[in-house]
Amino acid sequence: MSTTYNFCAGPAMLPQDVMKKAQSELLDWNGLGTSVMEISHRSKEFVELTARAESDLRELMSIPANYHVLFMHGGGRGQFSAVVNNFLGENGQALYLTSGSWSKSSVEEARKLTCDAQIDNLDIVENTNGISQVVIPQLNEIDKDYRYLHYCPNETVDGIEIFDEIDSPWPIIADMSSNIMSREIDVSKYGLIYAGAQKNIGPSGLSIVIVRDDMLNLPCLPQSSIMDYRLAVKHDSMYNTPPTFAWYLAAEVFAWLKSKGGVDRMANTNRQKAALLYDFIDSSDFYTCKVHQANRSLMNVTFYLANEELNSEFLKLATETNLVALKGHRSVGGMRASIYNAMPIEGVEALVEFMKEFAANNR
Ligand SMILES: *Cc1c(COP(=O)(O)O)cnc(C)c1O
Questions:
Q1: For residue 275, what are the contacts with CB-CB under 8 A and spacing of at least 6?
Q2: What Å distances lie between residue 330 and 157, 158, 326, CA to CA?
Q3: Closest C-alpha to 199, from 207, 190, 211, 210
Q4: From the CB of 153, is ligand 1 less than 6 Å away?
């Protein structure tokens, strides 16, 4: 069997080493004679696992001591409502920057839970000659008392990434579902970071929340207990039964990342991987990328065939070559290669080879 490279945007591929380890200890974890998913989340062994997961994540992301790390339910979207319910209280206002599909969804959810007047929205993408670029306005000139500013630094669907730090007078909440731990960031610049796990961390359903302790003093709306950050902090993310198997796999991914030299090293590889693909696309008139150089995602590379009638042939042949899940999101069309941490550089090389050959054969 030749290697299959899976470019799915999410749930995405996980590191082979981690999958093999999980397979080898599926029936007998830690010498307990049972699977990790069949034991109490309050058992000594599981609690040790959670402590290791947290300390590894703190080390990988250099998370300062005044931040809590939470393992919660509900994936990325679960946090769209959680941030509103936890921080807006009655009549609190928030500013949302939109740069693509996911940040637009987060605004919709926020407006659904509040009165419209509470949520302001600034679209920060400019489109010139079909090329999208992020332009962030001077936020310090806005005279409003927002509880937080929400944005999405990596738009998974559109392939738009915001690399510049945002200069904000209000605490920043970032949806890092698809770029957490893909490159170095300064956690201390954020009030809260969240991420659904299924792109760069582990199985879907789990979400990671990194929240500065003073954020928890903001007034909250009535909300369900399992999405309440204060309760999650108080109960070490075990107010109810957490998604234990997902937590275990996340812990294994963190350990794998550390063994690979951490986020800095991973970031270097990620930049190499992305450059390989973007440079090839730019060098070819057969393929185009519609994202400005400054905002090209390191994780989700979106591109189009000049002749879109060849799309289904491209996807069919790619799949036959064991390069799978390259179809762009239905809302934007085209192609998308998601190249998260778990994608080895060989996968990207194989994709570029395939794209070259496909172009040569279809001129
Ligand atoms: C995938 C994704 C989400 C949604 O995650 P779910 O777990 O499906 O709710 C939200 N934001 C971003 C940036 C994503 O990539």
A1: none
A2: 9, 11, 12
A3: 207
A4: no
CA of 360 to the centre of ligand 1 (A): 36
Whether residue 28 lies in the annotated active site? no
Ligand 1 pocket, mutate which of 178, 198, 299, 336 (most atoms under 8 A from CB): 178
Portion of the chain with pLDDT greater than 90, in percent: 97
Question: What is the fold of 17-259?
Answer: Aspartate Aminotransferase; domain 2 (3.40.640)
Please state the domain extents for the chain: 17-259, 263-361
Tokens describing residue 210: 């990194």
Q: Is 100 in the pocket of ligand 1 (CB under 6 A)?
A: no
- Cβ atoms of 182 and 176 within 8 Å: the answer is no
Q: Is 77 in the pocket of ligand 1 (CB under 6 A)?
A: yes
17 catalytic, yes or no?
A: no
CATH of segment(s) 263-361: 3.90.1150.10
- For residue 242, the CA-to-ligand 1 centroid distance in Å is 19
- Any atom of ligand 1 within 6 Å of the Cβ of 80: no
For residue range 298-354, what is the model confidence (pLDDT) as tens digits?
999 999 999 999 999 999 999 999 999 999 999 999 999 999 999 999 999 999 999
Work out the pLDDT band at 1, boundaries 50, 70, 90: low
pLDDT, one tens digit per residue, over 84-140 is 999 999 889 999 999 999 999 999 999 999 988 899 999 999 999 999 999 999 999
